[in-house]
Automatic annotation (TrEMBL):
Molecular function terms, GO-annotated: glycosyltransferase activity
Topology relative to the membrane: Single-pass type II membrane protein
GO cellular component: Golgi membrane
Protein name, per record: Exostosin GT47 domain-containing protein
Compartments where located: Golgi apparatus membrane
Keyword annotations of the record: Glycosyltransferase, Golgi apparatus, Signal-anchor, Transferase, Transmembrane
Residue intervals of the Exostosin GT47 domain: 2-318
């Protein structure tokens, strides 16, 4: 496998960062795009205050330094188009002129299709990585306008592979889920092993925990907050409260709650997936899912086929979702220990190592994506 990185004009990636304070309508992204998208360092050993929407930037930095990168397109088996489409669409959420909103996406497609390497396989060996969820890229002519672009509906992009933090569960044939970035970006396998061992030994006084704010589109969150607040076995961090809002923005506070819990409730929010799932894996806290589309239909390259080996599933429409504590109490301590061990083993492949760590020996999220994608492309071509 060898990967060629297209030298795109700056307007498609790094040029967008010149206006970093405008990249998100809710957040000044300037602190978050520092250090190749890792954000601000919070301690030594690879810890950063990483924003959940910087995966496309981190992925780019990792592939730039990847040992499988080739600078000769004639030798490449994969062609990477490092477009920061997530930053672009979030910058244009309030743009009412749809032509202006889509202009950069269309320009990118025109640029790529004009390259000789596109025509070789009509883009089937090309891919991009996107750091926002799929609904932000699939606006159709008759859809109600939520500020989305239409990048993934462009015919040329449908020929490519798209790596994305949340794929379309039913229509995402060319979409492959990649992890949200969490806070840990180690440079060595020793740093990784030290953290895994720490999470193996940490004392967990709480049966379960929930970190999150109420969401209008996800009534189940209100139910979680109620159940957790009424239980002495649950640790609640309500991100909708004044005190919780500040704590939820602190990586140390989030990881503290999760590392003190045996199970972490992963409720859908504005979309099916959430970064919290990957924070909970990092903390060795067994995720409890309430929709199959929060993980099982998303991250097939990364998660074991045997769901019960590392997670708990409670259908959000079932009676069991009304008595979460009771359901979790049924799981034996022996089973919990086995599940946690499985979970700790997943941490390396769900982590983005530091972009400068070219020979960490970890086998991180980017390594998994490139290997899996090469197999997929080879299958399609042959």
């Amino acid at each position: 496998m060898s990967v060629y990185v297209y030298p795109l004009p700056a307007k498609f990636n790094l040029g967008l960062l010149r206006h970093c304070h405008k990249l998100n309508v809710h957040t000044d992204m300037c602190p978050h795009v520092a250090n190749s998208g890792l954000g601000q360092p919070i301690s030594s050993g690879g810890w950063f205050a990483t924003n959940q929407f910087t995966a496309e930037m981190i992925f780019h930095a990792r592939v730039e330094n990847h040992p499988c990168r080739t600078r000769d397109p004639a030798r490449a088996s994969l062609f990477y188009v490092p477009y920061y489409g997530g930053f672009h669409v979030s910058n244009k959420f309030r743009e009412r002129n749809l032509t202006a909103r889509d202009e950069l996406d269309v320009s990118l497609v025109d640029f790529i299709q004009a390259q000789p390497w596109w025509n070789k396989r009509n883009g089937q060996d090309h891919f991009m990585a996107l750091g926002r969820v799929v609904r932000d890229f699939i606006r159709r002519p008759n859809d109600r306008d939520y500020g989305a672009g239409r990048l993934l509906n462009l015919p040329a992009v449908k020929n490519m592979s798209v790596l994305i933090i949340e794929r379309h569960p039913w229509q995402g044939k060319n979409q492959y889920g990649i992890p949200y970035p969490s806070y840990f970006h180690p440079s060595t396998s020793q740093e990784m092993a030290w953290w895994q061992n720490k999470m193996r030994k940490v004392r967990r006084p709480y049966l379960f925990s929930f970190i999150g704010a109420p969401r209008r589109k996800a009534a189940i969150r209100k139910e979680f907050i109620r159940q957790c607040g009424e239980s002495t076995r649950c640790k609640l961090l309500n991100c909708g409260s004044p005190d919780g809002r500040s704590k939820c923005g602190e990586p140390s506070e989030v990881l503290k709650v999760m590392s003190e819990s045996r199970f972490c409730l992963q409720a859908p929010g504005d979309s099916f997936t959430r970064r919290s799932t990957f924070d909970s894996v990092l903390a060795g806290c067994i995720p409890v899912f309430f929709s199959p589309h929060s993980a099982y239909t998303q991250y097939g390259w990364y998660l074991p086929g045997e769901r019960s080996s590392y997670s708990v599933f409670i259908d959000q429409k079932s009676k069991a979702s009304e008595r979460i504590e009771e359901e979790l109490m049924k799981i034996s301590s022996k089973k919990v220990k086995m599940m946690r061990e499985k979970l700790l083993g997943l941490i390396p492949s769900l982590t983005y190592t530091h972009p400068n760590a070219t020979n960490s020996g970890i086998g991180d999220a980017v390594d998994v994506a490139l290997v899996s994608l090469a197999k997929q492309v080879n299958k399609v071509i042959n």
